Structures are given as structure tokens and as C-alpha cells.
Amino acid sequence: MTRLTRSLVVGGMITLSASASVEEDIAQLQTELEHYKEMTQSLIDEVSDVKSGFNYAVVDTTQAHYGMGNAASKVYYSKSPLSIGGYGEMYWANPDNGDNFADVYRFIPYIGYRFSDQIILNTEIEFEHGGDKVVVEFLYLDFLLNTNVNIRLGNLLVPMGLINLRHEPTLFNTVQRPELERNLIPSTWNENGVLVYGSVGESDVEYTLGLVNALDLKSGNEASQTQWIRKGRIGSRNKGVMNRVAVVGRLDYRGYNGLLIGASAYYGDAAQGAVSGSRAFIYALHASYESGAFKAKGVYTATSVSDAEVWNNPEAATKAQGYYVNVEYNAFAPLSTSMRLPVFIQYEAYDPTQKTLSPQNPDNEVRHINVGINFFPHEQVVLKMDYMMTRYDNTLKADANTFALGLGFVF
Q: Using 50, 70 and 90 to split pLDDT, how confident is the model at 4?
């Protein structure tokens, strides 16, 4: 075979070594051509981003801004000023005590804008049940000062529990969010307020502290004794009353690989309007751990309300408590594939009124055992299936089982 003793210079760089065979020269040229094609396309994309102000970046599932969802965090890592992301989920359910039904449950766009590296606008707009309900889920400005002190101002997520900050469907494996984190930590719980957050010195501890609009638990009790906390949210509703505020705080420790341990608390007025003198205290303990194919997480929360007699409602719920534990294993872990197949079981027990109602209705504890499987054909897309067995201590309610299918995505 003829040997070549030559060099080819491309862009000022020697790309072929001396005394290479013709076949090796051609193969190396092809490799370099592909490399330059990729570089050229990358430059084209970046120039397009600069001209249009639009960010084409995909969700990075390894990045989360101080515990937020991956898609909600896109604006913090965007290369261009404008960032658009979001998530969606729908499901079909087959309860054994009623009709089958399907719901285009949520479609959520995130729209973010970087005024500068220090001033970030982030918004979430929620379309529920095919458009029956449209609401601003959060809308705030972040002033990023340094790793230790940052300020968030506007309508924001209350930093309680696990799901409220990370409520995207790829981040929990049940078809529905745990009832504990829908009723006792009323996800999605957003209020007007101001937060200060960051890292504690050089440690692996993150903190959040601030003031938010207080719940209106008096109105919540009047609306639903089992969802009295959820119904007490003010949120972003039109001209929501803001006579009373509450203090919220959160600590998270992430010093061990794959481990998160934290606690959060809310303390302040329990009702808006003219009612005063009643206080609410809500706290939650949360933890999660991930090691290879194995994941586990859990939350415990409790609520107590003082001096509720000012509401003139002797049957008002004033206490609630509960917990859940979720364990999963990726059945595709032994395979050489990026797809995942988590198999999970979740046990949940909570009492929304904790035996504070009348003697005729003394106990409202609810227990769920939920088993199921997820399929991730892509890290941003999930197909879900679960079977939930529900048991009530309240004999006025019939036990029920529900089979459900769901899909979810983030972008």
C-alpha cells in the first residue's frame, strides 16, 4: 500500500500525521468534517438565539434552582434572555365505585426572562381540565445577589414539603400527587410575598425565610372540613384579601450524595378579613434518597390552629396530621439503555381533622396503598400506571379502589 508523507493544514492546525495510509487520511478527514459541521451548527444556533432572543435549550434534568422543578429552572441556566418551558399531564381512571373518566388535567407553560444575570422573571400559567380553569401559579422577580443571599418578590410557591416546589409530573411516580401534599400541604400552594434564600455560608445547607399572605382557614372550614387547609389558600385570585401575613421558613441539607433531609414551617394568622386572634402552625419534615436504581422519599406534616373559637364554629377543624413513604426501583437498571422502568409502592395515611369534629363523626383518617409502574422512553416523558387501594376509618365512607393510567412530560 502506498504510504504518504505529507500534512494537511486546516484552519492553521495540522490534522493528519505524517506517513499515514490513504484510508487513514480519508477516515480522519471524515471525522474532522463531522466535527466542523457540529461546530458550525452550534454557531448557527447561537446566532439564531441572539437574533430572536429565544432559547432552544432542552430541559436539563440534572439542574434545579434551589429545589425547584427542572423545567421551572430553565430560565436560570438559559443562554438567551427569553426562556419557554412547561409541563403537561392527563389521565384516565377506573374507580370501582363510579364511572370511568378521563381528564386533560394540566397544561402549564413557564415563561421566563433574564433582564440581567442578577434580575430574573419567572412565571407559571396553569390551564386545568382542558381549559376550564386558568390561573397564574407563580409570577415573581428574583434578585440574585450571591450564593448566600437572594431575594424573591411577587406571587411565589410557598416552600413547604417536597411536591409544592417540585410538582412536575416526571418528579413523582403516582398518577395523582399524594393526597397529603394536596390537602395538608395544599399543592400547588402559591401566595403573594417575599422570600430570602441561599446557602448557609460554605455549607451544604440551604435556607429560605420570608413573609407570605396568610391562609384563610375560617373560609376553608366553611367550604370543606376535609379540605379546609386547601380551601383556605388565597393564591393569585382577583384582589385576594391580604390583611394578615405569615412567616415561612425552610432548611435543606444535601451534604451526602443522593440524600436530601429538610424541614419547613409556617406560622401566622389563620384567617383573613375582620377575624383576628387565631394563629396557625404548620410544619413538615421531608427526606429523599437516591442510589443507583433505588429511590425513596417521605413527608410528615402536622397542622394546629389556636383560638379557633373566634370563628363561632364549634365543629371547625383545628388539627391535621399525616405522612407518606414512597419506594421505587428501576427495573431497567441492569440493561444498557437510557430508558427507565421504575416500579413503586407508596403508603399514605393522613387525618385532615384529627378527631376534632363532632362525636357523630369522630375519625376521618384516610389510608392509601398505591402500587404501580412508570415507563420513561425519554427522561422528559413518562407513562404511568397505578392501582390505589383507599381505606377510611370513618364508617360513613365506603372503601374504594382505583386503577389509573396517565402520561406526563416536561419541556
A: very low
**pLDDT score recorded for residue 57:** 67
Residue type for 279, please?
R
Question: Tens of pLDDT along 12-32?
Answer: 444 444 445 788 878 888 888
Coil, helix or strand for 285? strand
- The count of other CB atoms within 10 Å of the CB of residue 206 is 20
Q: Provide the strand spans (E) within 229-340.
A: 245-253, 259-269, 279-291, 294-306, 319-330
Which amino acid, 24? E
Phi, psi of 310, deg, nearest 5:
-65, -15
Q: What is the pLDDT of residues 289-304, one digit of tens each?
A: 999 999 999 999 999 9
CA dihedral (49, 50, 51, 56) in degrees, to 10, reads 10
Residue type, 79: K
Query: Distance between CA atoms of 214 and 232, rounded to whole angstroms?
Result: 9
From its phi and psi, is residue 367 left (phi > 0), alpha (psi between -120 and 50) or beta?
Answer: beta
Mean pLDDT of 253-272: 95
- Boundaries of every domain in the chain: 3-40, 53-410
Q: Report the topology of domain 53-410.
A: Porin (2.40.160)
* Residue 235 CB neighbour total at 10 angstroms: 17
Q: Which of 260, 255, 238 is nearest to 134 (CA)?
A: 238
pLDDT, tens digit, 9 for 90 and up, residues 276-332: 689 999 999 999 999 999 999 999 999 999 998 888 888 889 999 999 999 999 999
The answer on pLDDT for 274 being more than 70 is: no
What count of Cα atoms within 13 Å lies in the side-chain half-sphere of residue 24?
Answer: 15
C-alpha of 399 from chain center: 30
Regarding beta strands 20-21 and 101-114, do their DSSP bridges make them parallel or antiparallel, or are they unpaired?
Answer: unpaired
The residues near 210 (Cβ < 8 Å, ≥ 6 apart) are: 152, 193, 194, 195, 196, 197, 247, 248, 249
